[in-house]
Amino acid sequence: MATLTRYCLALDLKDDAALIAEYETYHQEVWPAIIESIKGSGIQNMEIYRTGNRLFMIMEVQAAFTFADKAASDAANQAVQEWELLMWKFQQPLTWAAPGEKWILMNKIFDLNS
After folding, report:
1. Number of domains composing the chain
2. Which residues lie closer than 8 Å to 106 by C-beta, 6 or more apart?
3. Residues contacting 97, CB < 8 A, separation 6+
């Protein structure tokens, strides 16, 4: 089996209990076209965790995966564009994010097995 690369990313939700609950509901029934887009890009596994209004995403990807290719594919996919627009209702960028930037790639600072 090929080695997978793990990426961890962070994003905030708007600090509103009703919006957070609605966001979680959407993520219990993610649109099939979104799942297809994720899997088709070389992402083998994706998990999202929440504490308060902070989200943490773990992605495990195939060697051929690139964020640039995923962004280009997403830009050409109408369902992904609709999903992302809907998700902005709930999400807010981290204060250090560049304009228009959503999920921020995190730097690993500790590994028990290193």
Report:
1. 1
2. 8, 9, 10, 56
3. 104
Is 111 in contact with 33 (CB distance < 8 Å)?
no
**Are 69 and 85 in contact, with CB atoms under 8 Å apart?**
no
| 36: CATH | 3.30.70.1090
pTM, entire model: 0.91
Which residue range is the domain that position 57 belongs to? 5-105
3-state secondary structure of 58: strand
Task: Kindly give the confidence (pLDDT) of every residue in the chain, 114 residues in length, as a single tens digit, with 9 standing for 90 and above.
Answer: 578 999 999 999 999 999 999 999 999 999 999 999 999 999 999 999 999 999 999 999 999 999 999 999 999 999 999 999 999 999 999 999 999 899 999 999 999 998
Is 112 inside any structural domain? Answer: no
User: Is there a domain that residue 110 lies in?
Assistant: no
SS3 of residue 60 by DSSP: strand
